[in-house]
Amino acid sequence: MLETYNEARMLYKLAFIALGANLSSLSGRPQSSLSAALRSVSNLRNVNIAAVSRFYKTPAFPVGSGPDFVNACAAIMTTLSPDDLLTALHRIEADLGRVRDGTRWGARAIDLDLLGYEQEVAPDRQGYAAWRDLDPAQQMRRAPEQLVLPHPRLQDRSFVLVPMAEIAANWVHPVSGLRVAEMLSALPESDRRSVRVLLDTACETDEKAPSAFASDSNQ
Fold this sequence. Notes:
This protein has helices at 2-11, 30-42, 82-95, 125-132, 136-139, 158-168, 180-185, 189-193; strands at residues 13-21, 47-52, 56-58, 69-78, 111-117, 196-197. By secondary structure, it is α+β, with helices and mostly antiparallel strands. Strands 1, 2, 3, 4, 5 and 6 form a six-stranded antiparallel beta sheet that branches.
């Protein structure tokens, strides 16, 4: 019995999800949308939420493109493949009223991004590098047709790294070799300071303490 239990545990993989919203969804205002999305994630089969950051208020990007966003990060353990997990996240977005119309970096009711999955690099290192190094003007017009891991903009976004550092400061980027805390420190101070804790956080899931991965040097 113990051997079977240990084998089952080995099947679970660590993944990180970024959550964001700056428009109302079918669940209400942005913070309610994030809470609803987290509940839906926790209800997925073969998915366990391990930690959730606080909710943060961050300026929309590009500047002036919409209201401030509410952002958070969640660490999960799952037996789903990266593609199946992304499909499940897109289904949750649709259930909350999001319609994917091809708009890049626009205002939205809910956005769930798969940031990383263990130490996986997809589609391969060359493909990842192509999207990571894509010209900024092209980034606003083009979206990959297949999953890219880790998220190619992960190291550039304070609104992702600030909440991620709260729950997984020592997770190592599989390509750069940098920890989340190091990637965050490399950003301009003005970027880091623009991400502010939202005091009326409305997280209503049964996740573990936010520090679940913060001190694990190999996460």
